[in-house]
Amino acid sequence: MTFFNHFGRYVLLLKSLFVRPEKTSIYWREIARQMVEIGVGSVGIVVIVSVFLGAVVTVQTAYQLTTPLISKSIIGSIAANSIILELAPTVTVLILAGKIGSNIASELGTMRISEQIDALEIMGVHSSAYLVLPKILASTLMIPLLVIISAFLSIYAGMWVGEFTGAVTKEDFMTGAIQYWIPFMANFALIKATTFGFIISSVSSYYGYYTEGGALEVGRSATRAVVVCCVLILLFDYILAQLLL
Amino acid sequence: MIEVQDLNKSFGAKQILKGISAVFEPGKCNLIIGASGSGKTVLMKSIVGLIPVNNGSIIYNHDTDFLNIDDAGRKELRKQIGMLFQGSALFDSLTVEKNVIFPLNMFTNMTFKEKMSRVNECLERVNLKEANKLYPNELSGGMKKRVGIARAIVMNPKYLFCDEPNSGLDPQTSIVIDKLIKDITDDYKITTIVNTHDMNSVMEIGDYVLFLYKGEKFWEGSRNEIMNATNQQLNDFIFAGRFFREIKEQNTKRLSEEKNK
């Protein structure tokens, strides 16, 4: 299939989500369940990734700033800005694309090949709206929250590692972080996180929903979903930076 | 009643269904038989709208043209359809009870008590009283099929479709499933269509049998007529096994002896 075939089918899938739900309460319940699965279920990996990202960026920044002419507080500034602008919303989300993307694609792919999606259609349920819409809404809402958690944890971990290694005191780190703080950076990070949340859930759903074949194809769909999500996240990272900064 | 007229379906250059016409009457077990790859599943999935056809017509209940109704109409009609899939298609993440209650939750305003009463009634109907809290991966093949039937009949459908209900089951369990399908058809007077290549099913429940060969309708009749059918492809299919071949030979011998007398 060509790029245009995929893109056309992806747009049609998104268009098919805008239907009147069979029963709104069931859709709300499904959204809540997906929020728990996508949001709460990803907190563990976000904590681990964020702590190490914050620690590493602080240590590496301190390693490069050896001249006594530059204030130590600049380490806090560079680390915090890097974390908020790029590491929390992009690197963390790339990790989440692997976890959430493969999960969504394999779940829908398995439902497709085991005829569970056909069973929903036969019952009169709008399968794409019931299965895909809650995932997209949950992901678009929960990933920005995960990114906020990630940013706080990374900065906190960076501050403590700076103190622990003697590279920069906690006070200097926080002085630098606050001194060069631009509020728009937080908005920018959230815009990126929301966009990436939508990309992860919609692209993974697309690959899962249109899986054809057997168990092997489910694995392939999951792999393709993660690869395409990662590429699109990097592409939109650049586009958003170019447009908004 | 479901009436199929001149149904054609191709996948690319390969034509799978070639001008199929048939009438599936209510209160009867209508069987679609044929070798693997003869187009049985494609025909069934076309009738329920899971596979779009190239041309032809599918008329439900004398007046509803399934291929020319809007989405809302199709959705309404589907609420009257129950389907048992080849692999049962139970929702893995839900218990037996939740699988069966799913359509009721989605489409009715019944109270929880009423819904549970209906679920238990359906599970009792398929002899699965104690399985409410089990997950599909804890069930045997036969139990999964029975849960699939319970889920298919929970909304009191007018039409029941069963795609290879006996595939992967032992002969004894197959007979239980066949009997269940037959009883449900008789009790609720619904139009049942069963895809099968199990000859025991044909002989047990085949009120009307449609034989497909390479996507074409080659024969139609009842299970009583099948023993004396002269269609070569049908005979090759039906009497491929030694058991049925011997029955056929005995039957032919008996008929010729009766004729000579």
Description:
The complex is a heterodimer of chains A (245) and B (261). With 245 residues, chain A is mostly helical. Chain A has one domain (23-244). Chain A is built from nine helices and no strands. In chain A, helix 4 (73-113) crosses helix 7 (170-179) and helix 4 packs parallel to helix 8. The radius of gyration of chain A is 21 Å and the shape is elongated. The mean pLDDT of chain A is 94. Chain B has 261 residues and is α/β, with parallel strands linked by helices. Chain B has a domain at 1-80 and 187-249: P-loop containing nucleotide triphosphate hydrolases (Rossmann fold). Chain B is 42% helix and 23% strand. Chain B contains ten helices and ten strands. In chain B, a hairpin with a 2-residue loop joins strand 1 (2-11) and strand 2 (14-24). Chain B is globular and about 70 Å long. Classes of the chains: A mainly alpha (245), B alpha/beta (261). Chains A and B meet through helix 5 of A and helix 2, strand 6 and helix 3 of B.
